[in-house]
Amino acid sequence: MKNNQTSAHSLNNESGSSMEKQEKSRRNFLKGISTLLGGAAIGSMLTSNAISVAMAYVPSSDSILSDGKVFKKAQLMLLKQICAIVIPKTETLGAAEVDTHGFIDNQLFHCHTQQEQEKTLEILNLIDYVAEEALSVVFIKLSADQQFQLLTELDLGEKRFDQTQRQSFKVLKQFICFGYYTSEVGATQELRYDAVPGGFKGSIPYKSSDPTWATRGLFN
Amino acid sequence: MKEQVYVNKTSEVYDAIVIGSGISGGWAAKELCERGQKTLMIERGGVVEHRKDYTGENTPMWKQEHRGRVENILVDQQHHIQKQCYAFGNTTKQFFGNDRDLPYTTKPGTEFSWIRGNMLGGKSLLWHRQTYRLGEYDFNANKLDGYGNDWPIRSKDIEKWYSHVEIHAGISGSKENLPNLPDSEFLPPFEMMAPEKAIQAKFAELYPERPLIMGRTAHLTQPTQLHVDQGRVKCQARNECHAGCSFGGYFSTQSSTLPAAAKTGNLHIAPNSVVHSLIYDEVTNRVKGVRVIDNDDLSEREYFAKVVFVCASTIGSTQILMNSISKKFPNGIANSSGVLGHYLMDHNYNSVASGDVEGFEDEYYSGRRPSGLIIPNFYYKPNPKRGFLRGYALSASAYREGWDSQQHQDGLGVDYKNKIKQAGKWRFGLSAQGEMLPRFENQMRLHPTLKDKWDIPQIEFDVRFSENEKLMMEDAAEQSINMLKAAGLKNVSGHAKHGPPGLAIHELGTARMGRDPKTSILNGFNQSHDIPNLFVTDGASFCSSAVQNPSLTFMALTARAVDFAVKELAAKRI
Hints:
The complex is a heterodimer. Chain A is an all-alpha fold. Chain A has two domains: 1-56, no CATH class; 73-181, no CATH class. Chain A is built from seven helices and one strand, in the order H-H-H-H-H-H-H-E. Chain A has helices at residues 18-37, 73-86, 100-111, 114-135, 144-156, 163-181, 184-190; one strand at residues 201-205. Chain A is globular, with a radius of gyration of 21 Å. Chain A starts with 17 loop residues before the first helix and ends in a 15-residue tail after the last strand. Chain B has two domains: 1-170 and 252-347 and 438-463 and 502-574, 3-Layer(bba) Sandwich (FAD/NAD(P)-binding domain); 176-250 and 349-434 and 466-499, no CATH class. Chain B is of the alpha/beta class. In chain B, helix 1 runs parallel beside helix 7, helix 1 (23-34) packs parallel to helix 12 (551-570) and helix 4 (155-169) crosses helix 12. In chain B, the strands form four sheets. In chain B, strands 1, 2, 7, 8, 9, 10 and 19 form a seven-stranded mixed beta sheet that branches. In chain B, strands 6-13-14-15-11-18 form a six-stranded antiparallel beta sheet, covered by helices on one side. In chain B, strands 3-17-16 form a three-stranded mixed beta sheet, with helices on one face. Helices cover 24% and strands 19% of the residues of chain B. Chains A and B meet through helix 1, helix 3, helix 5, helix 6 and helix 7 of A and helix 5, strand 12, helix 9 and helix 10 of B.
């Protein structure tokens, strides 16, 4: 009964038709149940058009090409680079590749307070400011090693950074993690996602190379 | 459901009207219809069709608008109270009331969070599905310490009705033979996780009088033919229940009682019908029907019946009674005692404790279990040395840390990503659900001037936890911490909180049962002392809160009251 799993690579091709797609996947889901129940009993519900589908954020490969809802273009580029450093591409795509920066911009605008938006802007500005102060160029012009080094110092509240700034960066890391691990790639490829587990098993074997459940903390 | 089930204007005099379509209303309708009564179920909100209208169901996070969170503007304008409920989110928000249209006030210096589910099915779609019988110690509690009035019923009066509703609804759990928590008719329990089993064994050794058992919950772990006939299949362990469940994995009006009621051909439903008040005939001393305001266009209409069951939720039911004014009942219908609106209770969820469980690194679980564990109330016998009256249950659960916990660690890059991918420590926690004493001063009343858009007086709440409840939660935190430490958990922490009542969403009392018409609204069959054809069978009728989640008792009381009412109708005493 896992017929609602969509293809893993729908990143850049989910455009305006995502509503239709979602409705279709829901119909497939209901059809699956109807099979489980033995058919006719619930066939009628599939004819309904009452299904309303909310619009989810659609990841885009070009969200840094223009200003966002909270961030300017340059800030989006900076945030994209931070995403790439915090959760890089490994055998799975990283946070930047799945447009976590664009998602954060959208999510901050719709679901967070103005204060949280400003705090996020502040930490981005701080990163550029410190890069310029110390190394005379903005953050994205630094070498990969310099970038990693500077963010590590911020992450630990060391050298040029204090504990308050460290905490602000932790919040930004949380935004990045939320955006990444609730994305399709993060949930289904990096971690494990099971739409319809079919039942609960209290004990299954685990080894350290096994990914965790993506839904931990969301549904249970 | 067939279109002709839904009615708007009708002059038909029904055998019975049921106000409300939640857990109590659904049961009232089913039991009435199955006894051949032409029944009109009145629902203030819109229709929610099973499956078809579960629009948020089975939507993975990346397909949810805002990945499950709700837009600021919407929350500010429509859900500033509802958002406090743990189940409120993007896939469920359509099942929560609109706070802008549902205003209420609290007496200055008090707080109360009123969570609403105003649609067909009511809170049966949104409930937490934990199901526990009340036992003899619970029914005796008021009598022993003098708080509240004595329940007019005992276990022997309600046992067979518990069995009746459990078999139909489907309750999973384990037989335990405990003196303080009667067993139900069970489907198999959900499985425990390995650390939970280990802690269970530790507690059994250290605290033999505090057994840790699997939670009892209205989920089909192994459906019977009866459930299959209702159109339900096994719970798939998605734990996305509050968005609605097309599998019928958990009990709701839609999955269980409504199909049974509709099958009889005796059911009509009047949706979008906000009950303003009951129509009372002073000559016959009977309720004749109800006055309704249309939810959408605010037009008025009336419905008539020989008997009326008020199942509109604790506060909703009492609001209707209070707003039904006549010469004989100037302070609310059926309120000759004057206790209507008083003795409002909730449960107290203000203590938490948790710690790390060492080991079990090669253990994990699959599926999302829609239930935790429970340690039933171990203070069920009164003891003056304890410093407070009544007791609490401890709900419990283990989990293994995932990305939501692992993300907080220091680090960046490949190492950070790889650590987050791995499961972290096992954690285990206990949280209390405490009994709240029935107190006269905890009450709801109609606001003297403020009204809602249907021209119905708003409710003003005046309710707070007393010193007894605070002391109980402090004890719960202390006991929980001690128990976790004794069981060998590490980094144990916990505390008592001071949240106001309401958010347990277990509103109880305000139209209580009792033997004495001078001090209670309803008799032992949930029938009004004053008016024989008027019944209130939801949480409003409770004399005490006990510690158990109350919904199973709503079901049993309702089924029992219908059985009584139909016999009384046949005997022409109603």
